[in-house]
Amino acid sequence: MIKTSHIKDHLHLHFIVVLLGFTAILGALIALPATELVWYRMLFACIGLWVFLFAMKVPYKLPSKQVVQLLGIGIIVALHWITFFHAIKVSNVSVTLGVFASVTFFTSLLEPLLQKRRVFWLELLLGIVTIGGIYLIFRFELRFTEGIIFSLTSALLNALFVVLNRNISNSYHPGVISFYEMIGGFAFLTLFFVATGQFSNGFALPTTSDFIFLLILGIVCTSYAFMAMVHILKSLSAFTVMLA
């Protein structure tokens, strides 16, 4: 008999998937390049998560080794979002999300590898099915080749950081994990912009509508959704989460 807690986790997961799907629409609506969009997203997510941790009095001091690990995962998250939003910018939402379904295939390979467990062949089979769909997209949407490649890259990065988060989800509060990862991604992009002189050479500023969409993206679709996803990984496998 399925535990009530697992039913709640699955229902919560599907709600989060709706929110995460909405990020693709917001990404298409926000008139900013992918790198700047992700920088603002992670900035607002950092603020939102810090307010939550402060209000809930959640201790967020961790050993240096774990901090470095989480900051590193945050860089992977940033690269995932950049490639995802760039795919939307150079193709469209439907093509990007269609190709992004390959995340289940990548997860079916990475989860056994990184968790040192045997491969579940049903998971691998379900993942391979998505490759057939991607072949059809390649066949009929060749004009979106760049978007397809970036969406595949984004799916691989997504599978990687979700599996890594699955491995540490039981060790710390999901808000703390999310907070350090957002800091890692934000710091990485900030250093990149400083190194390339982008802050002083045409750094894109959001319009009023962009700012509103970025707040929704950063607070609701990132601070809340990302933290909730890490919490769910305590009880569900990375493949189950990616399959939803």
Summarize this, please?
By secondary structure, the chain is mainly α. Helix content is 80%, strand content 0%. It has one domain.
What does this structure look like?
The chain is mostly helical. It has one domain (4-243). It has helices at 4-29, 34-55, 64-90, 93-100, 103-115, 121-140, 145-168, 174-196, 208-232, 238-243. 42% of the residues are buried.
List the helices and strands and how they pair.
Elements: H1 4-29, H2 34-55, H3 64-90, H4 93-100, H5 103-115, H6 121-140, H7 145-168, H8 174-196, H9 208-232, H10 238-243
Helix/strand/pairing category: mainly alpha
| Radius of gyration, taken over Cα atoms and rounded to an integer in Å | 18 Å
Count the helices. How many? 10
Kindly report how far apart the N and C termini lie. Answer: 21 Å
Average pLDDT figure: 92
Low-confidence stretches: none
> How large a portion of the residues is in β-strands, by DSSP E?
under 5%
Main beta-sheet annotation? none
The percentage helix is over 70%
Task: Sum up the structure in keywords.
10 helices, mainly alpha, 244 residues, globular
